[in-house]
Structure formats: C-alpha cells, structure tokens
C-alpha cells in the first residue's frame, strides 16, 4: 500500500499547478506535450480495447481513483480509432488490451501520446508473449508500456516492470491466471509509473537490442501446430502445453475413446482446457497414450507417455463445456477423492471442491470452478460439503475461499446454453446457487467470504451472505445482473441493502459498472481489502480467521448467530428469495435473456 500511496503523491505534484508564465513559455519551446500536461492536475485518457476485460476494468478504476477522466471504447475496426481520437482530443490514448493495428494518424500525432500496454519484458514483441513465456518456463516475465509505432511493440519504452513466474501449485499457472493476477498487477504499476514519467517531463527511451539487459526478442505468433498436444510426452509437458493456451485459444488434441461397438477410436480435434496433473494412485492406471482412463465431475483422465492428467473442459463449435458434455465416453466414473486435505497442501488429483482445517478450528472451503461459473451439479456438491462442515463441531470459523482467479461469477451460462431446455436448466441453476447462499447465512459457524479473485453477478452477491467479507486489494467486482437481462437472485434484495443501503444498492444494480475492492470496502459492500498478491491475502485471511476462532469470542458470536436465526428474520430472508425468483421466472422466458446469454457464451 505504501507503494500505491507514493504513486498517488507523484501523480499530482502541487508545484506543477503554479508554473510562472516566463518558465511556462520556456518549457513549451522545449517540450510542448509534457508542459501542457504538467499544467493539468488530471488527464483525459482514452482507452482503446478489443474488450473491456479484467485488466482494462482494473486499470480504468485505478486511474479514476487518482482523479483522471477515463473514457473506454471497445474497438471493432481500426478506422474507429481515428475518428474517436480526433473527436475526443484526449491528453493520452491508452491501449491495455488491443490486438488491432493502430492507424498511423493516431500513433504519429505528436500532441497525443498513444501507449500500448504489452504483457512482456523489455524487448519482447509479438501477439503470443505470455504463451511463449509459459512454454519456455521463464522464471521471470514482465509488462512494458510502449509508445505505439509502425512496427508492432517496437516503440519507445515509457516503463517496464517484471514479476516472478512461480506458483506453489503448478496446476494454477495458466495463461489466463497469470494475466488476471501477476500481469494485471504489474501492468497497473507500470502504467502509473509511465504517467508519472510523462507528467514530470521525462521522455521514453528507445528499444535497444544491443543493451545486454534487454532479454526480450521478437517472437512469431503461436500456430495451431505449436498448440497441438502429443500424448506420447510425459504428463507434465502436455499439461504445460495446455496451460499456456488456457483460456484462449486452447490447446488442440484428440482422444482415444471406446465407442458403443466396444472398439477404440480417435475422436475429432477439440480445444483443451483445465489441465490438472494426476499425482495420486490413478496415475498408475494402464492404457495407451491419449486413452481416456476415467471421468469425474465433468473432467476426463488421459493417459500420457509417462503419467496421466485431467482435462476439465473442451471447446467445439465455439462452445466451451465440461469435457464429458462433449465426450459421450464410456470410461468408468472414478471415485471422488476425499474432500478434506491437510492445511497448506493442494489436491493431488482433479478436485474442484476441497476443505482444509487448521488446529485452531478454522475450515477453509475452496471451490475452484473454471472461470468462476457454478453449474447446478457443482452447487449441489458444494452444498453437500458445506453441510458436512456444519456438522463438524471442531470447526469454529468457515472461510469461503472460492477460486484463485475468480471467487465466483454465478450461474453457469455455458452449461445452460448447451442444455436441452435452457429455461428449465436456468431455473434449476438459480435455485441451486440460492441453496448455497442459504447454507452460508444459516450456518452456526462464523462465516467469512475471502475474495482472492474477481467476482461478478450472483458470485459477488453470494459473498454478502457471510458474517464477514474481505477481498484482495485490486480485485474487481461486478455486482449486477443487468447486462444479462436478469433481475438476479442469491438473496441480494436482502443482503445488499443491509450492507450498503437501499440507495447505493439500486445504484450498483442499475449502473452495471465494475468497482474496485477498495471502493467496495468504503461503501460497506466489503469489510476490508488486504494484500497485493494472492499469497499475501491468504496469509492475512488466515490471521483474521484464527483471531475470530479464539475461545474468548465464541460466546459473543454465538449470541449474534442466535439473533440471525430468529424465525422472523429467516422468514423475511426467504420472502426475498421468493420475490427474486418470481422476477427470474419471467426473465428466463424472455428472449432478451436468451440473446444476451448466447452473445456472452459465443463471444
């Protein structure tokens, strides 16, 4: 936080607001752009992005917190940029996620700097930066803020910063996970530094490959051949190939599956996602490389040249689904692994829900659902686990950890899209996630929602049912349903106004805008935000939970819980659910919802 505070200080130096006229004219002759910007306390910044994604949202929110004016445009055609830049005449154009070529008349305008936020170390160039970094197993990677130029990623450098590429659990080291965590965090810091440099009159340095400190190179775009897996290789090498392409565009592979006639045949090509190394007894199962050895909760276990790995999702015809929804395989269903594992360890098999207990009686409940989407069956399994935790008298505090990258994003729109009856599946799914929320607020344990990653829609609302809700600093929340043409449920009409008041609740729902965790804490949506990294956040949450588990506090919390369990209170809460579901039943019949869902799933 001290680093962030210092950034805020440097972004608004008071002395720059009072430059004497004689000095001002001298500065204008030397550098009109930096002088013009020096005289401003805040910048008008234009965002050009393919999509207003998690990085773009985080960066816009961070800059708005520092009093800059941000206008975001999702770009479909390069020509749009020329008109938008001419009409807006911003102080700065920032491209946090843009793969389209910037027109020369935009990047060559000397009056308006145009920056690319590139997810690579200094000297790295190309469209597959993170992919190659993971493929090469780089120990360190980075983000560079570059002046846009005629050659891709070859412009002058305004700022560059690095980060370690290390994870305690290698299964989490995917392209998308690195992007939403380390890359996003570093991109924000690099952009803030670049703006500081701009406002202080510094100039960018040219890219110099003769400098021995410049390690990056120009790399080609990854091809389909680069992403096609070879099951003859060891499982850890195949897993790396899948992770470097996850979640876009996905690795490419086919499977050896037993058909209805009993014969083994190769399937057609799929895009592969959600690789998890099998480190338990199942890795010793025999079979030929590429053979489907078993299935569990939508994932399939694949034999490799050495060992085996799980694949959780497949994509075909632009639709990404749990693997077994695409593969109608006759492979045996593998028994569930034990849901509870030792504290501080990770599952050694494909396991999207697990718990771990500390000696102090703190139970951490992890639900690592792909992209944070919670299907009907996943919600039902989570309810079963929460009920078992509730029955454990040793447990005093239950901490809902969600996933590393995403706490939760609510109902599973892809599974609903693929259902034979999307209306019926929507209804089942919303009721199933409501049952999860009910387990949380009716628990006799002290409950804590720990948002390590972003959360949206019903996933953001679900967190409010806990006694306490904390998020990692920098987490982006989208606490609304409007873009999916839904009224929403998850008991939000009860818990959201209780936390932020009716006026702010209505504002959050109607504006459909993202908010940073720090702002969410200020308005009461959260009880606090701590930790720059997931690891730091986990440590702080453990400390908080252990404090709440102290015997001296149990009597107080027991009284609070008894008040919340008052029949009249529970009746009021259930009436909120009924009211929400009445709206949702109508929404699920509305063509607007189905069109919005289809657009979300296929784009």
UniProtKB/TrEMBL annotation:
Query: Can you provide one Gene Ontology molecular function annotated for this UniProt record?
Result: catalytic activity
Organism, as annotated = Pocillopora meandrina
Q: Which domain of life is it from?
A: Eukaryota
Q: What is this protein called?
A: Hydrogenase maturation factor hoxX
Indicate the family of this protein. Belongs to the enoyl-CoA hydratase/isomerase family.
CDD domains in UniProt: crotonase-like, FMT_core_HypX_N
Boundaries of every Formyl transferase N-terminal domain copy? 77-167
Domain Formyl transferase C-terminal, first and last residues per copy: 222-328
